[in-house]
Amino acid sequence: MARKFYGMLSLLLSAATAWAQTVPSPKEHFGFNIGDDYQLATYTQTEAYFKKLAASDRTALVDIGMTEEGRHQYMLIVSAPENIKALNRYKDISQKLGHAEGLTDETARQLSAEGKAVVWIDGGLHATETVGAHQLIETMYQLVTRTDAETMNILQNDIILLTHANPDGQELVSNWYMRTTDPKKRALNIPRLYEKYVGHDNNRDFYMMNMKESQNISRQLFVEWIPQIMYNHHQRGPAGSVLAGPPYRDPFNHIYDPLIVTSIDAVGAAMNNRLNAENKPGYTQRNGSTFSTWWNGGLRTTPYFHNMVGLLTEIIGGPTPETVPLVPDRLIPNGATPNPIVPQEWYFRQSIDYSVSLNYAVLDYAARYRSELLFNIYRMGKNGIERGSADHWTFYPRYVDSIRTAYKFDKKNDSTTEGETGGGEFSFGKEDTIATKYYAGVLKNPDYRDARAYIISADQPDFPTAVKFINALSRSGITIHKASAAFNVNSKQYPAGSYVVKTAQAFRPHVIDMFEPQDHPNDFQYVGGPPIRPYDAAGWTLAYQMGVQFDRILTAFDGSFTQLPYGQVESPLSTTLPVAKKGYLIDPAANNAFIAVNDLLKAGVKVSRTDKGAFYVPAGAKSESILNKATTELGILVSAADAVPAKLKAVAPLRIGIWNTYGGSIPAGWLSWLMEQYHYSYDFLYSQEVDKGDLRKKYDMLIFVTGAIPDTGKPKKSDYWFGKLPKPEELSDEFKPWLGRINKDTSIPQLKKFLEAGGKIVTIGTSTNLAYHLKLPVENALTEKNKKGELKPLPGTKYYIPGSLLIADLDTTAAENWGMPAKNDVYFDRSPVFRFTDGAAGAGMRKLIWFSTETPLHSGWAWGQQYLKGGIAAFSVPVGAGTLYAFGPEITFRGQSHGTFKLLFNQLYK
């Protein structure tokens, strides 16, 4: 029997070896080995290679969708031939275990024993991080052709989803690098963003999924396959190390299942161990890098909220050789970097070899612990269902602080209060121990329970935007119900068409994260020291950003609900265009109203605004046709006007210029995408054109996103985060006009002339520095006097607010704010805050948005938030015949902050 088995195995290996000899190597296909110095493959070449690999019976090539530039985005599935033939069955098992619905532990164990570990490995998301796409090619080749025992075991037990994350970017970057004949002069200083609209922020789009590539990837991750492990390759590693990898530093998000955290530790250990066993030093983890597991929104981090083990490595290297620098502190072995690397020359192929080793470490771990990984994703999903079906309390920092506050209050007012134990020089594990009654007083308080469900009523002012929020959830695999009839919960009536999102589901962490405020802990380098900057945002609650109105329900309820198919994209509820003799009034509360207005203007229909902000459109065949389409497809509210309103101001489209720069501004890219979604026309404007002057001949409106306008002092390197500019002689004539930066000596005078001649300028974020350049009566509100009586910015030890959501007050009588509520969330990321000075009233300065309380924080982290009280977040001011609008918060943040889009849209008309 044994002789027969080994004979069969020998036959299979011989067949595999024979087939492998027919697969072209990368050298045969590309003309060079993957990892050769000064060589990069284009996506056109890579796509052709994928198709050659797809001839193998170990593979299935899947077109997962089109990119923003119209290329096919591919995922190559690799596994044993018999697994490839049964992919639908293994996908079904992965989905069932991932959703954990209606399964018993016994059934789940049976499915776990039958199923295969599903592992996602991607590459190329950030296209200038060239290791990513190239390690993907090399890994594909090795998995398809190798016949060693480890590879065969991996193929038998794993289904590997090898996915190209950014085809457009690879084509741009590789063509740009390879265009130079002299290899040693090749460079990655591309002229524009490597994702059509958002560049590096393509890794900030995975709960919103605005970009087509994000939608394609998310469908495979959260709807189709639900892999147990996903591995996202990036660059670059911390100086003095080769790469940063799992496990990551604290804080991790409080709503994860603990199995996520411990599983990341386990897989990270396998990765680190393999490199050490192969004598590949330089792996750093935990506090050895900046990466944490707090934030949602990245390709690696959003899977955490779906019970997937998300892995990120950031490695050094590229086609041009480099040097591992000397960082003395990195040479001392410790828990973060147990195996340091010494300074040395570093080559592209070394990074490829490291990456393949890391991939194999992950795949080998998945093969060894296949059934455990499958059962654990079920267990995490089941835990989510159980927590959402009963009273449950999450241990947020604010609740722990309430325990301490309650104890200190009692101790101060009652001498019999049981005292703390521990806290001395040697506390022996009894640090800050207090009576357990304080736990029950807070973390059994029914008011602090997690929600059982969230109801999004169909009768809210901007329901079309709420539907966009629902679509973001649906694309992320969330279970959503839609009411087929009116229903009542807690004495409140909800109309048919309302949505219900229950938390009793496997992906409960993602549901909670999209509706509830993030409660980032105070995180400092040491007590009394400076803050530790979060890896990305501290708070991002999407429902708040989008201005979605919802009710938080703490008890179970039911109604006539229909569950939406996973991943289904909803359309806004159609409204009815009324019969109108005189004209129509369009409610400006819905963002989609501006799409209809822009379509009307482009069709030559006259549009006006009332003194309350509503759009008025005269009745007519053309306006009726456009508005019929808008009410049907956009769900906007249009009413009939019995008479022409008394006070009307005609509106007309503006000639709009959006500032951009060589290499591409990510905020400008996001803004350009947003303008296209809402049917605005625009041109990009570069600093050389600003400096030439005569701007008023071409433009009515200029928009400067954050990062465009430097401060009034000496330019600092941090002012320009777009990279080093190439020399003009290194570029073709097409790109030379893109060079340059906004300069206080040559650019600011031209912007002042533009304003004085009747132009309008919108500044956002740090570009509100323009107000200081123009010497307007305004100053930084976040200052204090030093010993010399000089105003200096508040230090980080007193005030620090990274990306968070704050509640601000708005002047709803101002035309700039039409359609906005009196209080609204704004996305605030160390944003400018102002104080008017003497002469502001005489200059006509108008306060648009401000902070009226000492506690404006709604989601995130706001150390020293009391300093914001009375501070102005946005204002407008006439300058000559024009107007300057200054918005400190990021009002168009990453295409997510729908709740503040109108603050821009209102300014974009004559």
Question: Can you give a write-up of this model?
Answer:
With about 900 residues, the protein is α+β, with helices and mostly antiparallel strands. The protein is about 30% helix and about 20% strand. The protein has 25 helices and 37 strands. The strands form eight sheets. Strands 24, 25, 26, 27, 31, 32, 34, 35, 36 and 37 form a ten-stranded mixed β-sheet that branches. Strands 1, 2, 3, 4, 5, 6, 7, 8 and 9 form a nine-stranded mixed β-sheet that branches. A five-stranded antiparallel β-sheet has the order 17-12-16-13-18. Helix 11 (about 260-275) links the parallel strand 6 and strand 7 (about 285). Helix 7 (about 130-145) packs across helix 12. The longest helix is centred in the middle third of the chain and has 21 residues, at about 350-370. The termini are far apart. About 50% of the residues are buried. The model is unreliable at about 5-10 (pLDDT under 50).
Question: What are the SSEs and their pairings?
Answer:
Layout: H1 2-20, H2 26-30, H3 43-53, E1 59-66, E2 72-78, H4 81-85, H5 87-99, H6 105-114, E3 117-123, H7 131-145, H8 149-157, E4 158-164, H9 167-178, H10 212-225, E5 229-234, E6 243-252, H11 258-277, E7 283-286, E8 292-293, E9 309-315, E10 322-324, E11 344-346, H12 348-368, H13 370-388, H14 397-413, H15 437-443, E12 453-456, H16 463-475, E13 481-483, E14 487-489, E15 492-494, E16 499-502, H17 508-515, H18 542-545, E17 551-553, E18 561-563, E19 583-586, H19 592-602, E20 607-610, E21 615-618, H20 621-633, E22 638-641, E23 648-651, E24 656-659, H21 666-677, E25 683-685, H22 687-692, E26 701-704, H23 748-756, E27 760-764, H24 770-773, E28 778-780, E29 783-785, E30 791-793, E31 804-810, E32 823-828, E33 834-836, E34 846-850, E35 857-859, E36 872-879, E37 882-887, H25 902-905
Parallel strand pairs: 3-4, 3-5, 5-9, 6-7, 6-8, 24-25, 24-26, 26-27, 27-37
Antiparallel strand pairs: 1-2, 2-4, 6-9, 10-11, 12-16, 12-17, 13-16, 13-18, 14-15, 19-21, 19-22, 20-21, 20-23, 28-33, 29-30, 31-32, 31-34, 31-35, 34-36, 36-37
Helix pairs in contact: 3-7, 5-13, 6-13, 7-12, 8-12, 11-12, 14-15, 19-20
